[in-house]
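Bumping my old thread because nobody answered last time. Still need a sequence for this structure:
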């Protein structure tokens, strides 16, 4: 058994799936116990947000957005999957460590989604 504890929660305007996240702002509310982990994040222009798709459905085959072809879920970015652990690379706008607020742009997580982790983004492979 794997147990994870969220480090915070997403506050966004996205109330249902399929909403466009590009250009939209969201706030990552980080719980007090984890706010020390935000130190130094302000030097980055983007971050990876690892979040839990709490409204996702377990499935192995999906029809991805912008397609009509049924595919295995591991070949897609669908939030519906056996373990809905999702990753979004977003633009970092601002951080208030005291309030535990991280403002980002482009997060496709629904409002209320649990945040599992925040990471320095991976550099693209060439």
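Sorry it took so long. Here it is:
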């Amino acid at each position: 058994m794997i147990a994870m504890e969220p480090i915070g929660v997403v506050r966004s305007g996205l109330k249902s799936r399929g909403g466009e996240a590009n250009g939209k702002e969201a706030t990552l509310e980080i719980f007090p116990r984890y706010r020390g982990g935000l130190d130094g994040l302000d030097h980055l222009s983007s971050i990876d947000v690892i979040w839990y798709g709490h409204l996702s459905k377990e499935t192995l085959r999906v029809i991805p957005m912008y397609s009509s072809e049924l595919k295995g879920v591991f070949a897609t970015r669908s939030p519906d999957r056996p373990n809905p652990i999702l990753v979004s690379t977003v633009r970092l706008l601002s951080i208030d460590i005291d309030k535990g607020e991280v403002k980002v742009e482009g997060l496709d997580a629904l409002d209320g989604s649990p945040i599992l982790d925040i990471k320095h983004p991976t550099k693209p492979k060439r």
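The chain has a mean pLDDT of 88. Let me know if any region looks off to you.
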